[in-house]
Amino acid sequence: MRFAAKIAYDGSRFSGWQKQPKATENTVQEHVERALATLNGRSTPVVAAGRTDKGVHALGQVISFDMAAPWEPRKLRNALDANLPRSISVSRVAPVPDDFSARRSADWREYVYFVWKGQGCPPHILPFVWRNSSDWDRGALRTLCALMKGEHDFSAFCRKLDRPADTRRTILAASVSGKGPLLRVRIRGDSFLTNMIRIIMGSMDLVAAGKRDVPWFEGLLEGGQRVDAGPTAPPDGLFLTLVGYTPSPWDVS
After folding, report:
1. What is the CATH number of the domain that holds 20?
2. If you average pLDDT over every residue of the chain, what do you get?
3. pLDDT tens across 60-80, in order?
4. Shared-domain flag, residues 64 and 120
5. What is this structure's pTM?
6. CA proximity to 7, closest of 120, 87, 70
7. Which of 52, 86, 105 is the last residue of a domain?
8. Are 76 and 93 in contact (CB under 8 A)?
9. 10 Å Cβ neighbour count for 148?
10. What are the tens digits of pLDDT across the range 213-240?
11. Which structural domain range is residue 28 located in?
């Protein structure tokens, strides 16, 4: 019987979502699969909607997996949550069709990047923001968000070693919001390249701080090499917040 689950985690505690060849690496996937194996009585592979990098957080990661016997969703949620470390939390569990895949069935994924622009960042949010003291032109940020919408070649926004043959991706929505020192940059797309959001943020920083201009960023959306774009922003402020499906697995829970 196949299930989908929505989970959240503090990415600063892990070496990313995906299991690594080195057994010493501490990943979210390892902890989830170990907990499920305890409940299932056998090895239980898990598929995730997005393979978040080391240090990247999640509020709405979605996973899919198979259980050997039927479970009542609420009991499965409680049991899975009880077998995970406190840095990983399960909010929802629902039965799904046997052909459902958290990764392949997803219509879109949404990330939010939090930036702290003020002085003296409160310590309880410091691990979850990019503390950036440069003076940003917020109007320029909104212009860049508008430019990103639609299909573009994001090859310049991908880590060189992980660049696939097809680097075209579609951005469905992009916006910047927030009052005071805390800003939120929201980006929703069909899928993302490795480090894509963080390189976008590093490049937006250059434009918003007046070190590069808008046409430079617009040119990056037409393709290029990794060296053409800005630096990779830190993982601290990045959250996988939502994953969209049609139909939603939560509509039947």
Report:
1. 3.30.70.580
2. 95
3. 999 999 999 999 999 999 999
4. no
5. 0.95
6. 87
7. 105
8. yes
9. 21
10. 999 999 999 999 999 999 999 999 999 9
11. 2-105
